[in-house]
Description:
Helix content is 28%, strand content 23%. By secondary structure, it is α+β, with helices and mostly antiparallel strands. It has a single domain, classed as Fe-S cluster assembly (FSCA) (GMP Synthetase, Chain A, domain 3, 2-Layer Sandwich), CATH 3.30.300. Strands 3-4-5 form a three-stranded mixed β-sheet, with helices on one face. A two-stranded antiparallel ribbon has the order 1-2.
Amino acid sequence: MVTREDVIEALHAVEDPELGMDIVELGLMYDVEVDGSSVKVTYSLTSMGCPAGPIIQEGIIDAARSVPGVESVEAELTFDPPWTPDRMSDDAKFILGFG
């Protein structure tokens, strides 16, 4: 059975190439919904014009699909609420100098 925690763990492998950290620690992953073998990941980017957007979206889909039992993945981009550095983990803030 697919769990939300398994998907979140897999998403730690998705790195923002500009910042060199994963999207979970950066606070770019907003939500994960699991419905049987289907997964929906709601995420954001650091800015609307982020050039890494397609790479991040592809990484989300690939990472979620790598979880045993996942058959379909939807990656939904949102800017509501807009991402801010406050969403980052304490470790990410420290490493990137936001704390």
